[in-house]
Amino acid sequence: MWGYLIRRLGESLLILLGISLVTFALLYLVPADPARQIAGRSATAETVANIRAQLGLDQPFYVQYFRYLGNLLYGDLGRSYLQRTEVSELIAARMPATLLLMLAAIVVELIMGLTIGAIAAIRRNSALDHSLMVFSFVTISAPQFVVGILLLYVFAVQLQWFPIGGYGTFSHLVLPAITIGLLGTGWYSRMMRSSMIDVLAQDYVRTARAKGLGRLRILVRHVAPNAILPIIAMIGIDIGLFMSGIVVVESVFGWPGIGQLAWQAIQRVDIPIIMGVTLVSACFIVLGNLLADLVAPLVDPRIKLK
Amino acid sequence: MSAAAEISGREASRPVLTVKGLTIQVATPEGAKIVVEDLGFTLNHGETLCLAGESGSGKSMTALAIMGLLPKPMARIASGSITLADGTELTGRSERAMRKIRAQRISMIFQEPMSSLNPVMTIGKQLEEVLLEHGMCSRSEAPARALDLLRDVQLTEAEKRLAQYPHELSGGMRQRVMIAIALACNPEILIADEPTTALDVTVQAEVLELIRALQREHGTTVLMITHDMGVVAEMADRVVVMRNGKQEEAAPVRELFAAPKTAYARELLAAVPRIGAAPTRPELERTRHTVDVEDLCVRFPMRGGLLNRVNARLHAVEGVNFRIAPGETLALVGESGCGKSTIGKAMLSLVPYEGSIRIEGQQMAGLSPHALKPIRRNVQMIFQDPGASLDARMTVGKQVAEPLVVHGLASGSELQDRVEWLFRRVGLPADHIDRFPHEFSGGQRQRICIARALALRPKAIVADESVSALDVSVQARVLELLRELQEEEGLAYLFISHDMAVIDQVADRVAVMNLGQIVESGSRDQVLRDPQHAYTRRLLSAVPFPDPTRQRPPVIAREGPVGSPVRPLDDPAPRFPLAEVAPGHWVAGDAA
Question: Which residue in A166, B344, B368, B408 has the most C-beta neighbors within 10 A?
């Protein structure tokens, strides 16, 4: 168990290193010039060159990259070009909002996705099944900014049930959580449906019926625990999906999380912030997957960690 | 007094289940199909009635109908009645009403003990569940009751089993757990649907013995469903022979075996392979060998630890030697997990191995895939499940042609001719080549697999349980085809099987395997008629006789612990050297 954990953590570090290299290289290749952004449009070429030298942007790629990695070892993500504050502080300040949104979205998508999937599987090939699957297909394919704006228009502008944007109370959380959760709902309902259908046809479900158990008990004790097994691994992968969603959704709803921070930084080519947010998101994804793999043997006794 | 009168006189006392005019319909894309038609029988208290028949005879559907477990909405009872002793009608009962019948009055165990238990629930919980559902005991008494039940089915280390999960138990142990669950509420009737078909012959004998013992103890009536006439002879008081959903013949077991009245029952019984019934095979000239295997070892690495390094090995095959002459059949026999299938795979270079495998004098070991390709065509394989070893989305003609195309041996009209010839050769009409696998029966599919194996004109064929999935009558015809092909082409067969009676029919020589090693080998008569090794004797003692007048003595107990093929890296498997006890008859001694 401990050997497995240490090996997986080592692997995770390697993955993060790879991600940092790729992201850094991509940002290095971006045609926009951060020094020009900082100096402003009216600045002279000399000022821009000075700023560039000051930030070390005139150094070759590998020098810049290894300096970044060196600082990273000390937990230093660098300073924002424009706000002149530590990136780690900026991210830390916005983390609670993003974590709250993530948790809420996962709750929404698991509850809705698993329920819809289970109902569709039990009523397989009925009109209800078909409409639920159409619904899940729509939620998978609809872009999140469209869903977000649509929800804002209906529930905030027209019905005025929820605030238009911002952060602070539970009602602020509802619309962004649903916007992100709907995408996951589509995925989970489809997976849960096929998994349930698979399990319903298993011999041990027939055994449960032969025991004279009731329908509900069979579903709750025998079908659901088995149907959920393949989905657990998906929750880890889902965090990646979530991280790509928050950049858009936080901006649409004015949610002060790291997605919004990234959105603003991208517009201003604030490279240290983009790097920081990317690495933090990558950490989430890697840890989420690790967590899912660690939870798997707790629910499925056949899985042994080696 | 005849046997029939004797049985009816003793059993006429009390019918516990009466089936009358039972007709079951299954909805298919082509419309409703009748799978059981106008079936009637009575189950008397304390007896064992066998529903015997080949696949598609409707025997399992009948059992599911009694339990109210027919797959909905495809299958339904169209007409007929199923009544219990007290007049309770089971057809047309609601699911809720049926729940009171299941487990309390009728229980069922199934063919696949591997998949019939919930994999994420402990054995204890699965037992307690049925007790609590039917109010057999209070929640606090349940664990103790569950333990008693496990002891009743003679499960070893019963306390430990309660907390274990199904995957930690062997097939035989799981079937014991299933029986414990089925008998938890003391039902009047136990339906056993092919309860031992998936088990090794020694385990089968133990499970059948257990069912008989529990039946005596509890007075349970057993309705047993089986295709195996050996099991019928061993278990049944009376037999209902079914075919295509209809009752073909119903008779007390001795009467049926002594004098079957219908042609079908005669045919069925005649097709049953019997040990000792096969004629002596002609002596072969062994001047050269098609297959020459020397010191074959297959070891699978087991990984673990911090760096996921190999820390143990599974010794699947350990130091195996054998030779097969042209036209000869060597049968490999042993219980599941003994390594017999792995040898077959190694012969086709499908698993990495050490040692030497020569086919027609050509060394296969250590060759690159490129160098191996032309030699490979000399060995072909026929697998157990003809349905799974054919591609469902490819016409059968293309599948038979594929090896020829891959090896660049034929194309165009020549290929067409060759495939048609192969189809005729295995007894299939040549105009069937454009059909898909689902349009054929199991036996026909196995013929297609044989045609595919023959396409490259191999010198040796590995037949891995090739007839095990087939009905006896089909099995007999496929074995006949294999024998014909062998005589004509001088093929060397490595015939892998767990079925002693089939081996008795086809083998020239027999090698018995245990834990990856050959423990006894010799001519068929030497090994099967005069077994010397304790393991061979034990295997043979478990084979049911398809003759109800002969009582099979109890299975010889296993000597010592089961043993494990998994060993640490620094612990080589002990080799058991073979000693010649008679010309050509080799028996393993103690570890060297």
Answer: B344
Has residue A164 got a pLDDT over 90?
Answer: no
B504-532 pLDDT tens trace: 989 999 999 998 999 999 999 999 989 99
Instruction: Give chain A positions within 8 Å (CB) of B102.
Output: 209-212
Distance of CA A130 to the CA centre of its chain: 29
Q: Which residue of B has its CA nearest to A305?
A: B304
Beta strands in B45-183 (DSSP E): 48-53, 75-84, 106-109
Which of B331, B363, B371, B315 is CA-nearest to residue B482?
B331
Q: Does the predicted interface ipTM exceed a cut of 0.85?
A: no
Please give, rounded to a whole number of angstroms, the shortest distance from the CA of A5 to a CA of chain B: 9
What is the band of B306 on the pLDDT scale with cuts at 50, 70, 90? Answer: low
Q: Which of B108, B120, B179, B189 to mutate to test the interface with A (most CBs of A within 10 A)?
A: B120
| pLDDT exceeds 50 at position B81 | yes
> Chain B partners of A211 at a C-beta cutoff of 8 Å?
102-103, 129-130, 133, 181
Q: How far is CA B106 from CA A216, A242, A257, B85, B151, in A?
A: 22, 51, 61, 12, 22
Q: Is the pLDDT of residue B298 over 50?
A: yes
Please say whether the beta carbons of B329 and B495 come within 8 A. yes
pLDDT at A165: 82
Q: State whether residue B133 sits within 8 Å of chain A by CB.
A: yes
Do B167 and A301 count as a contact with CB atoms less than 8 A apart?
yes
Sequence-distant (6+) residues with CB within 8 A of B246 are B37, B38, B39, B58
**Closest chain A C-alpha to B282 CA, distance in angstroms:** 47
B413 touches A at CB < 8 Å: no
* Backbone dihedral region for residue B242 (phi beyond 0: left; psi -120 to 50: alpha; all else: beta): beta
Of B69, B165, B182, the CB nearest to A209: B69
Amino acid residing at B182: A
CA–CA gap between residue B583 and residue B525 (Å, rounded): 12
Choose, out of A126, A211, A213, A220, the residue to mutate when testing the contact with B (most B CBs < 10 Å): A211
Residue of B nearest to A203 (CA): B116
B328-347 confidence digits (pLDDT tens): 999 999 988 888 999 999 99
CB nearest A301 (choices: B67, B96, B120): B120
Question: Which whole number is the average pLDDT over A229-253?
Answer: 85
> Maximum CA pair distance of chain A?
85
Q: How far is B310 from chain A (nearest CA, A)?
A: 11
Query: Stretch B477-495: mean pLDDT, rounded?
Result: 92
- What pLDDT is attached to residue B9? 46
Which H or E run contains B277? none
Q: Which residue intervals of chain A are DSSP H helices? A: 2-29, 34-39, 45-55, 61-73, 87-122, 127-141, 144-151, 170-200, 203-210, 215-217, 224-227, 229-253, 258-267, 271-299
On chain B, the residues whose CB falls within 8 A of the CB of A206 are: 69, 110, 116
SS3 state of residue A79: strand
